[in-house]
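Dig into my protein:

:::
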Amino acid sequence: MSADPALLGVLHPTARGAEAPAPPTKPVPAARPPARRGGGRRRRAVWFVCGVAVLLVSVVLSVRIGASDVGYGELGRVLGGRLGLDVEPLPPLLDSLVWDLRLPRVLMAALVGATLAVSGAALQALTRNALAEPYLLGVSSGASTGAVAVVVLGLGAGSLGVTGGAFVGALLSFGLLLLLLRRGGLDSLRIVLTGVIVGQFFSALTSLVLMASGDQDTTRAVTHWLLGSMASARWDVVVVCAVVAGVGLAVVWVFASALDGLAFGADTAASLGIDVRAARGVLLVVTALMTSAAVASVGAIGFVGLIVPHGARFLVGPGHRTLLPFAALAGAVFLVWTDALARIAFAPREVPVGVFTALVGVPLFLLVLRRRGEL
């Protein structure tokens, strides 16, 4: 049976020999030249050099300002004398102010800021949680318990001191975390929930010890330490933190590709050939040790490990090979200036730096969320 020509014409206009109507034309956009990868690398290199320069300028300016301002010439004479150059020595009091108090404090702020920022960036990818921060593992609560045990109860006061007690407490809390994670694996949700449990347990221990002390002066001193302060920074502690931070930052940077994969989930990371369990284990241990060293040295300083990675990610993108160095620089600059503000805002009285990181960090975090369209 032959098909009706009229029907064919409706179904397909060319069936009757008619020419099909041409579809409406759209303007073709002009071809764009292919993006050059070298341009992006050069731009990131320029940003990195600028970040290093900003950090150096921040360190110099922060050393100068305080209750007693220090001139550039005096700062140069102190550094020149320590380097063995032929310079006129400063009065011993001023020399000690710069070399023994200001410079270790500023360098400690830079090291702690870089450590917390990189740890926060790593844990946010590791747990796939935008609210993850270095204290997620409970090590800050353990460090607080160790410090309180030394100050209030006198446990190991002769051999450990506050810094040593805080470090031991941080390691104990992390050991408990690993013990609880031993059977169930290292998936993201278990890490987050177990870290919260461990942190709450040690926070309760800290509160219990403080309430049992009954000494208001001791409680006030411990509370000041818990809020974070660079006032106790000394060269030996700075050297230890520098070694821990340097090794830790290098290890985390080596795992940058693994963090890129883990940010999309364990299945995606495994499909890329990443040993998920090994990568998670190494990163958990390294970030915990870095955070333990930082908290044991200066106390628990909040918000740095939370807001700085988001700000750096907004500027340079989510790729961790670029993100981690920028986060380290941004964290260092942020804490150097926050500590300077804590020193001079109510001079001669000093405010714990953790108070100012929260006051400055909250509006910055809201700004980042708003720029990302999440608020």
In short: The chain has a mean pLDDT of 82. The radius of gyration is 28 Å. Residues 114-371 form a domain with the ABC transporter involved in vitamin B12 uptake, BtuC fold (CATH 1.10.3470.10).
